[in-house]
Specification:
The structure is a homodimer. The first copy, chain A, is 45% helix and 15% strand. By secondary structure, chain A is an alpha/beta fold. In chain A, the strands form three sheets. In chain A, strands 2-1-3-4-5-11 form a six-stranded parallel β-sheet, with helices on both faces. Chain A is elongated. Chain A starts with a helix and ends in a 10-residue tail after the last strand. Chains A and B meet through helix 4, helix 5, strand 2, helix 6 and helix 12 of A and helix 4, helix 5, strand 2, helix 6 and helix 12 of B. Chain B binds a DNA duplex through helix 1, helix 2 and helix 4.
DNA sequence: TTGTAAGCGTTATCAA
DNA sequence: TTGATAACGCTTACAA
């Protein structure tokens, strides 16, 4: 149970250094010796301890992934992207859920530091900028997704949320809508803010006077969407379209509209954001703005690997352009 | 950067052993000394190396979680359950996706062994029983979810799939259906087999003659459900109800029925399995059999912690009873 | 081409 | 109550 390199060395009749050499294909070693070592290792079922290796190499081949909640349909795809890229390079990932709780995030970062991860990826981090700063100061590579971080040597993988919102609202405006409401997401997040900004910008460029009564501030949940709709549909004149902070919110709006006896898209048009699996499957199928979640995760991990490999070259940022996916929750306004 | 226990000792003017004592609250240490050490540690931003600690303690405070695919809506909840329980006990979890590929699973297990995880949880593992056997032989605690494993000292967290299928089919039979088809999941999995068995048993107890033409074997995907429906709806007489391997399959069937111009539930009743978020949100809302995914993950992790703590007491198994959730895809048969 | 030995950063045993 | 010091299992000079 738990053979060590010493045991293998003994069994093969060589020194431990030789065993290490053949196992890491480093340095010269005679083919015969090599064969003997491999045989002995196999016989003993030897699996080298990454723990011991990490101690001397000062690198653990692990990275930390910090996300709000794996249960939220947007995160599995991004997680998978990270995992695939990590695993393809021999890395293993620690998964941490924070529920957007700064205290939880701090605790997770602490654990990752203790475990000496080679890097960490934050997805939609909270306002604990200090946590990233600490990591950076310690020389731990950091990549941030879904969040801008100024004046810190980290890479960023972003999606142009403002542009996405613009796309969504222009679509609505092009359809003839002018009473357009926004069921906003968590405005403490940059993501929420940018989508709101895009919404405002679209209305402005179309010459539609802003009406703060048509902006509901909630969070990114289904329930929030339901409540948003209850409030927004009570405005007079009633909005004919609602642009939502994300797909979950849009689903909530859809259900509330249904409950209020409104037909979608005839009485009300709805646009979401993200394009999670649900969006295509629900009926009417949701018109939404697609984010390339898997690719974002994959790229984030690749950027992290670059940094781990020492290719710094300053703080990089990659901006993905979202894409409008028109399905069945939007329709032209009968005039 | 990267202060060590030595640095802290030096700064506090004590020996390293003392620092270790205060940091681990083990052994007596004078309050004043303690304060000085804590101060020095804080000043230096000292974070103990779990890597070094692991080497001597022979335990890493990490566990491995092996699942097929985090992108499949059933797994996030179970993952979250595991994570929450782990994190509450100071453990960190390595996430591994196998795509049900035995080779990938072997590679993941290898990585987890190298990293000397304190235990591993398999969710719906492939047929690589040898992998678990290896782990068990090495003394690594193992808990298996969604899969029976005989003659191996592992704990099991299961849901009574047969009973769930029985529940679903009896519901259909009670509604007056007798031409009931089954869009089965992956039959190489025990889960798929058990649900099929429950389906057969329900028909048998109702005295309905089995018709193998009404059983379609696919896997647990949306696409598989769509194909299943195309085949099954071509049978004559056409089945009036389809019990599906899981919710994703049911959604596929729902879409295919829609495409074929069939009204659900009027022309066709559908029952799924799992009760993922989608099930409640789709229209018509899906009648399904609920599995307590979060609780299953949580319990699995708790059982693993018990084993890690040395409470073996033989192979335990916990069987969750699933629950029928009747929504809108099932209706009585007009006679 | 191979072996010896000095760490890597902790914990834990023994003395003091 | 505290300090040396020997592990823990591996990598990596440095010698041989």
């Amino acid at each position: 149970m738990g053979a060590t390199i010493r045991d293998v060395a003994r069994a093969a009749g060589v020194g431990q250094a030789t065993v290490s050499r053949v196992l890491n294909s480093s340095g010269y070693v005679h083919p015969d010796t090599r064969a003997r070592v491999l045989q002995a290792a196999a016989d003993l079922g030897f699996v080298p301890s990454q723990t011991a290796r990490s101690l001397v190499r000062k690198s653990t081949a692990t990275v930390g992934l910090i996300i709000p909640d794996i249960t939220n349909p947007f995160f599995p795809a991004i997680t998978r992207g990270v995992e695939d890229a990590a695993s393809a390079s021999g890395y293993t990932v620690f998964l941490c859920n924070t529920d957007n709780d700064p205290a939880m995030e701090a605790q997770d970062v602490r654990k990752l530091r203790e475990r000496r991860v080679d890097g960490v990826i934050f997805v939609g981090a909270t306002d604990r900028r200090d946590l990233m700063a600490t990591l950076v100061a310690e020389g731990v590579p950091v990549v941030v997704t879904d969040r801008q971080v100024a004046d810190l040597d980290v890479d960023m993988v972003l999606v142009d949320n403002r542009a996405g919102a613009l796309l969504a609202c222009r679509h609505l405006i092009g359809l003839g809508h002018s009473r357009i409401a926004h069921a906003a997401g968590h405005l403490a997040t940059r993501t929420g803010q940018d989508r709101l900004a895009g919404y405002r910008e679209a209305l402005a460029e179309a010459g539609i006077a802003p009406d703060e009564g048509l902006v509901y501030t909630g969070d990114f949940t289904l329930e929030s969407g339901y409540q948003a709709a209850e409030v927004l549909l009570g405005r007079t004149p009633r909005p004919t379209a609602i642009f939502c902070g994300n797909d979950l919110v849009a689903l909530g709006v859809l259900r509330a509209a249904e409950a209020a006896g409104l037909a979608v898209p005839d009485d009300l048009s709805i646009v979401g954001f993200d394009d999670i699996l649900l969006a295509a499957l629900v009926r009417p199928a949701l018109t939404t703005v697609r984010q390339p979640a898997y690719s974002m995760g994959e790229l984030a991990m690749r950027m992290l690997l670059d940094r781990i490999a020492g290719e710094t070259g300053g703080s990089r940022r990659h901006l993905f352009q979202p894409e409008l996916v028109v399905r069945s929750t939007t329709r032209g306004r009968a005039r």
